[in-house]
Design a protein that fits this description.
The protein is built from eleven helices and 18 strands. With 393 residues, it is of the alpha+beta class. It has three domains: 239 residues, no CATH class; 81 residues, Transcriptional regulatory protein pf0864 domain like (Alpha-Beta Plaits); 54 residues, no CATH class. It has a five-stranded mixed β-sheet with strand order 9-4-1-11-10. Strands 13-14-12-15 form a four-stranded antiparallel β-sheet, covered by helices on one side.
């Protein structure tokens, strides 16, 4: 059996929220502190408190640091982790987390990775949060980590560089690197911090709904502030992966299919709704003409999505079409692996989708080249596909 952890970041995630959730799920805080003592860090203490966030019981952890916390470079943090007598998996996970942060800061400030200076995320409390989280995962025997979509706040947040937009640039870059699913909220504060984003990016093996597992523990890690109507906490589920629904579903991806039948919506609104659904995370969306009650012409709007996006997309369907009901069912699919290569046709780039079965030129790219050259679209697509096939052979 494989032990997994799944994060539910409905109110975002920060370093102390991640560590607090794992302690709440059963990781022994004294053992975590004992392992952290192996780092060359001085002048810190973890304060633990049981709190309520919008009525939900959670563990709030605060790393109290003596005045004058040191600003560290990426290189110095890597050296610190390599010197410490930590379990190998703890060290490897912590290095991966700081590597994600380092690459983001390198891009943001246009400096080489070895010269990156961390401010908030290089301070003692952030190091304790990151390494402590990796230690807690080890104490709980977690082999793989997963997460659902990650909530983001809005507005502006303070940083060592001044006021920054939310999501913070570092958060956006770190999560973009791993193609993490995110969504916005109306909460006017920073929900996901760079440290929290890096923990997810560096630790997660995948994204989506709760994997099939037998739950053995769960916990909530509280954020600092209360949020009206929303528990300011991150949830973690710990469990053992089981075989699921039988060998005929091996390797299958669970999907949610939602439908709504409408007979009073214009074609323009339906087209706009499909575009919006795809922009909000739907895997596919389409409209089928049907004959409704009393012989009236109608349409069935169908949306295919990851279960983690179902609630958000259902709200889009309802608000855009005005339908009085949406129905849903769970399907399975076996998607083929695919990748993209970019080739040139008459000196202009065309992306080609490559799968085990075929090569397919991206329509918009091929159409743009065809229009600029005044040549048939089918010729441009064929040349691009032949060039991609030749490159792969």
């Amino acid at each position: 059996m494989t032990t997994v952890a799944w994060w539910n970041c409905f109110a975002g995630i920060a370093g102390n929220m991640a560590l607090g959730a794992l302690v709440d799920a059963g990781a022994d805080l004294a053992s975590i502190e004992s392992q952290l003592a192996k780092l060359s860090l001085e002048g810190w203490e973890i304060r633990s408190e049981q709190v309520l966030r919008a009525g939900v019981a959670a563990t709030y952890l605060d790393v109290e640091v003596q005045a004058g916390s040191e600003t560290r470079t990426y290189t110095s943090i890597v050296a610190m982790l390599k010197r410490a007598d930590l379990p190998e998996r703890v060290r490897g996970r912590a290095l991966e987390v700081f590597g994600r942060l380092g690459r983001a800061e390198s891009r943001l400030h246009r400096v080489p990775l070895g010269e990156v200076h961390f401010h908030e995320v290089g301070s003692t409390d952030a190091i304790v949060d990151v390494v402590g989280t990796c230690i807690a995962l080890e104490l709980l025997g977690v082999d793989e980590v997963f997460s659902g979509p990650v909530a983001q706040g809005s507005g502006m947040a303070r940083s060592a560089h001044g006021s920054l937009p939310v999501p913070a640039p570092a958060v956006s870059l770190v999560l973009a690197e791993v193609e993490a699913p995110i969504y916005g909220t109306g909460v006017a504060m920073e929900l996901t911090t760079p440290t929290g984003a890096a923990l997810l990016a560096g630790l997660c093996n995948g994204w989506g709904p709760v994997p099939g597992m037998n739950i053995t523990a769960c916990g909530f890690g509280a954020g600092t502030r209360d949020i009206e109507g929303l528990p300011n906490a991150a949830q973690v589920l710990i469990g053992e992966v089981h075989a699921g629904e039988g060998p005929h579903f091996e390797g299958a991806q669970p999907l949610t299919v939602m439908e709504a039948t409408v007979d009073d919506v214009t074609g323009e609104v339906l087209a706009s709704t499909i575009s919006l659904l795809l922009a909000r995370g739907a895997l596919d969306a389409w409209v089928s003409p049907v004959t409704g009650k009393k012989g009236r012409p109608a349409h069935v709007l169908t949306v295919l999505c990851d279960p983690a996006y179902a609630q958000k997309l259902r709200q889009v369907i309802t608000s855009e079409t005005g339908t009085l009901g949406v129905r849903a069912s769970t399907w399975r699919r076996w998607p083929s692996s695919r990748s993209f290569v970019t080739v040139e046709v008459s000196g202009m780039p065309v992306r080609v989708k490559v799968s085990p079965q075929r090569y397919k030129a991206e329509h918009d790219d091929a159409l743009s080249v065809a229009e600029r050259l005044g040549r048939p679209l089918r010729e441009i697509a064929r040349e691009a596909e032949e060039a991609a096939r030749a490159r792969s052979s």
